Amino acid sequence: MYITVDNQNTFVATGGKPFNPNLPTVVLLHGSGTDHRGWALQARWFAFHGYSVFAPDMPAHSLSAGEALTSIEAMGAWLVRALDAAKVSNVHLIGHSQGFLVALEAAVLLSKRLLSVTAMATASAIPVNPALIETAQKDPALAAQMMLQWGFGNQHQYGASAVPGMQPIGIGQRIMANNPLAIDLAACNAYTAGSKRAQQLASEGCASCVILAAQDRMTPKKEGFKLAQDLGTHAQVIADTGHMLPMEAPKQSLSIMKTFIQTLEK
Q1: Which of 41, 65, 69, 243 lies 20 to 30 Å from 158, alpha-carbon distance?
Q2: Mean pLDDT calculated for residue range 227-254
Q3: Which spans in the chain are helix H?
Q4: Across residues 8-19, what is the average pLDDT?
Q5: Element (H, E) at 211
Q6: What is the CATH number of the domain that holds 120?
Q7: Strands of 207-213's sheet, edge to edge?
Q8: Count of domains in the chain?
Q9: pTM strictly above 0.85
Q10: Domain that holds residue 78
């Protein structure tokens, strides 16, 4: 569906069903340079099992218009305005990599509307090598290729795919090369409030879930474990997967996500 946010056309994937703002809403937030397509399986499951799905392309990404936002704080505030535009009442925030940093910033603004947060293949801080940011500025396609080679686990480097007939590395490269990757990476690199935000959520009793990838070379597990500690929860690790966890292990990640969220609904 399309909604208007800040006078700009914004695309939001809904998992294949009409959006109902009165249902508990699962918000799926993509990582740097990517878009809603990374959540295809997870979005469809939640949409057909009693939830509304809100998986936006951030401004200037893929199907969304507007200017790319240059800070995680601005992205978090934008997300809340997007949820307001869609008249969303109750929210489960789920973010992959940069998407979870955005979730942390949005969470503190949502107040009583927030039901839970789920972190996937991420950390409270995501420092980025300045050389990668420079490459993304000069040659986005090359930077995307580099990130995807680092980002996928061993099996996917040899062509394995959780979706028959599709090659995530090739598809991911086309998406990332045409999105504002350098701006996203710079925003991640500059963000320092993640640990404080996570500890604040824990002190407020926010339900949280952390899902990590055993072969993650972009946000190493040890940093994910620190995030879990800040949130007051225990991390779960999916074997044989890299940083692109939502696409690499959609069934395994969905299993953890839905078990966590359904438990809260009981």
Answers
A1: 41
A2: 93
A3: 40-47, 72-85, 98-110, 130-138, 140-151, 154-157, 168-177, 181-190, 194-203, 221-231, 245-248, 250-265
A4: 96
A5: strand 207-213
A6: 3.40.50.1820
A7: 2-5, 8-13, 52-56, 25-29, 91-96, 114-120, 207-213, 235-238
A8: 1
A9: yes
A10: 2-127+191-265
